[in-house]
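In response to a reviewer's request, we include the raw inputs and outputs for one of the modeled complexes. The two entities were modeled together in a single run.
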Amino acid sequence: MIAWLTAVIGLCVAGTIILLMRRDHLHAKHGLEWILVAIAFAGAGLFPEFLDSVAGRLGVAYPPALALTISIALLVIKILLMDIERSRLETRYQRLVQRVGMLETDLLEGQQKEAKPPAS
Amino acid sequence: METAATADTSPRIAILIPAFNEEAVVGQVVAAIRECVAYPVIVIDDASTDATRDIAKAAGATVIPLPDQLGAWGATQTGMRYALRHGFDMVLTMDADGQHEPRWLTALLAPILDGRTDVAIGTCTERGSTMRRIAWVLMKSTSGLRLEDVTSGFRAYNRAALVTLSQWQATLLDYQDIGVLLLLESRGLRIQDVSVTMRERQAGASRVFYSWLMVVHYMLHTLLLGFTKRPMRTSNGSDPNSGEASQ
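The model returned the following structure tokens for the whole complex.
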């Protein structure tokens, strides 16, 4: 039963990702990552014997524990990648804010110089 | 365009003041500086919600209005980028709360003009509260910096330091203390302490040292930064920067 539930969750996530991409709520490069996750979910649910086989080869007595461990590791990597991307975006945003401030100053000073009457 | 025959060879110097909601004192601070020295004063308004911008302008400063709040270091870096864009060779940074006395500006500039250092820090260890003194000891021990007052915002920078601190690596920093100093040292720039006196804050409160929770967050952030950016020792165990930083 749990295998079917996992498969259904995977297929629902895949469907949601496709819908979000169709409605332009999700960038294609992020959608690809999540589609792969959804496929892995659905695969683990539809073909549980594959997970059992891998767990047996690795010496893991309880196959779902392997699935959970791999899932947590992938989530940690994903969150780390998101923070790296966020740091990069914060830097770009801050420099953009700085640039806007500098340009506004230049613009106002230029306007003030133009507004001053020429020295006679 | 300047010609070689008529060019003024004296360095162009600007004074940078990051300010956030400092309407009570920023006008007096700008006026006091203009009485002491003739350098242009540039106030970087860190998205204040009061009249800081207008008062600074009325006092004779050039004002850079930031459309969003970047913090004291982000505002200071804006001023540095602006100074470089406008051909300045050196900048002095001061707080907008009236703690830094303009009469020390010349003393702060002197070691840079003499070529003895790239960055001068106005040091006043007497000003430290117990909380601040503990912070200094922890910061210095984790970062390996040999400077006295690592949190002082009363500083002078030459052009090489300005170029270094205008880069994106410096934009990643949240505060002007450990991270900025370690970045300068990593680029081989010399940093020197200059003893000054400072007044009590005339208005407002420190953005860091006002609550224990904020101090804990600031300290953990800064100590981790100091530890991760700490310069590597040379093979003979010596610190390549220790000699020049302890002057």
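As requested, we also summarize the result in words. Helices of chain A lie at 2-22, 28-46, 48-58, 63-115. Residues 58 and 66 of chain A are 9 Å apart (CA to CA).
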